[in-house]
TrEMBL record:
Residues 335-402 form the YknX-like C-terminal permuted SH3-like domain. Keywords: Coiled coil, Signal. Residues 1-26 form the signal peptide. PANTHER family: MULTIDRUG RESISTANCE PROTEIN MDTA. It comes from the Bacteria. GO terms for molecular function: efflux transmembrane transporter activity. Residues 91-208 form the YbhG-like alpha-helical hairpin domain. This is HlyD-D23 domain-containing protein. InterPro entries: HH_YbhG-like (IPR059052), RND_pump_MFP (IPR006143), YknX-like_C (IPR058637). It comes from Brevibacillus aydinogluensis. Transmembrane segments: none annotated.
Length: 409
């Protein structure tokens, strides 16, 4: 049994209890009972749905620094309007400024090294290297001549072996000095190797990136509004130490507010995107527009969210207030009777009394949906029937009846 059927059963059960208690009194079949009647007719079922929800800014952001530090300025107060990109707060930037200066110096140094590698040696350095080669060449030739002379003397046993070895070593040293001078001259005339140039360029590029990163970090010491709107809350104070991600301001767009109404899933068919809904707050009413119907049912509540936007140009409705929405839902056409006209001894055993020729005629009916204080009669009644709606708790089948204020029917 669903909730609606349970409610119907409770209602008709109470009616049955009332009827029984009335019928326990002494029964006089000749007594004419005073009743009220109505003519049965089909009507369109209507139901007023009342829902409530909490107002929220149309757009909202918790604003925080991307770097840590000490707050030195908070430029806005609660209620101030801000535009996207406007300065909200600043951190002490001394350390970050030093990092930028250090990175800039590294860029200058690596740029000079790169320029030197690309341009090669200066003329003075080339001349100096050439003179070193000439000097080493002269020394090597002299060492060769001296060695030849010492070698002949050694063969003639005119000098000792130690003198011969010294001359030989001197020649080897002179030859090495000449080779070194020639290699140095080659470096200054041919320039750096390709891999040395690439390594120097890579060092320069890395220094540039480090400078850009330091400059970006420095810029993050200034907190700017991500959206246009109103400062809803100020969450920090000057002098406070804040870490990355600590909220400092709450900014929201309250020119338009939104509310998500929890619509029972059985009523969602009556809601359409773009329709206008009346919203109420402390006796004030405004029109809201349905902009979104959420795609899934909340399993915990059995409701579907319907998002409504409400204009708030004067900012006199506030986020966090609870508003109510009223919507008239048209149901199906059928026969609906007051709940007090129906008596039931349990599920599937319901009846009403009709006025037929001035007598109460007990008539079995089948109950459908409940609509406010009226029950749908699926079968047992037809248009034009004279239904007794008041005094049914005192009636028996065949009782003579008289409409209140009238004559026997």
């Amino acid at each position: 049994m669903n909730s609606k059927q349970l409610m119907i059963a409770l209602i008709v059960g109470l009616l049955f209890t009332t009827a029984c208690s009335g019928q326990e009194q002494a029964y006089d079949p000749a007594e004419v009972k005073k009743i009220e009647i109505t003519t049965v007719k089909k009507e369109q079922a209507t139901q007023v749905s009342e829902l409530s929800g909490t107002l929220q800014p149309l757009e909202e952001a918790l604003v925080s620094f991307e770097v840590g530090g000490r707050v030195v300025e908070l430029a806005k107060e609660e209620g101030d309007n801000v535009t996207a990109g406007e300065l909200l707060a600043r951190l002490d930037s001394s350390d970050y400024s030093l990092q930028v200066a250090s990175a800039a110096a590294a860029v200058q140094q690596t740029a000079a090294n790169l320029e030197k590698v690309n341009n090669g040696a200066r003329d003075q350095e080339v001349t100096q290297a050439r003179l070193q080669v000439e000097k080493a060449t002269i020394a090597y030739r002299k060492a060769q001549d001296d060695f030849k002379r010492i070698e002949r003397l050694y063969q003639e046993k005119a000098i000792s072996q130690n003198e011969y070895e010294n001359a030989k070593n001197y020649l080897a040293v002179a030859e090495k000095d000449l080779q070194n001078a020639q290699q140095a001259y080659s470096l200054v005339t041919q320039g750096a190797r390709a891999e040395d140039r690439e390594l120097t360029r890579a060092s320069y590029n890395q220094a540039v990136v480090s400078k850009e990163l330091a400059a970006s970090t420095l810029a993050k010491t200034q907190l700017r509004a991500p959206i246009s709107g109103t400062v809803i809350a100020k969450l920090s104070s000057t002098g406070s130490l804040v870490s990355v991600g600590t909220p400092v301001y709450r900014v929201g767009n309250i020119d338009t507010l939104k509310v998500v109404l929890p619509v029972p899933d059985r009523e969602i068919f009556a809601w359409k995107e773009g329709e206008i809904v009346t919203m109420e707050l402390y006796g004030q009413t405004r029109n809201g527009k349905v902009v979104k119907i959420y795609p899934a049912t909340n399993q915990g509540t059995g409701t579907i969210g319907v998002e409504v936007h409400i204009g708030n140009p004067r900012h006199d409705w506030f986020a966090g207030q609870v508003v109510k929405a009223r919507k008239t839902i048209q149901g199906k056409e059928g026969i609906y009777v007051p709940v007090e006209a129906v008596i039931s001894r349990g599920q599937g055993d319901a009846h009403v009394f009709l006025n037929v020729g001035g007598k109460a005629v007990k008539t079995a009916v089948s109950i459908g949906e409940i609509n406010g204080n009226r029950l749908e009669i699926v079968s047992g009644l037809k248009e034009g029937d004279k239904l007794i709606v008041k005094g049914v708790d005192r009636l028996f089948d065949g009782d003579p009846i008289e409409a209140a204020g009238g004559q026997p029917q």
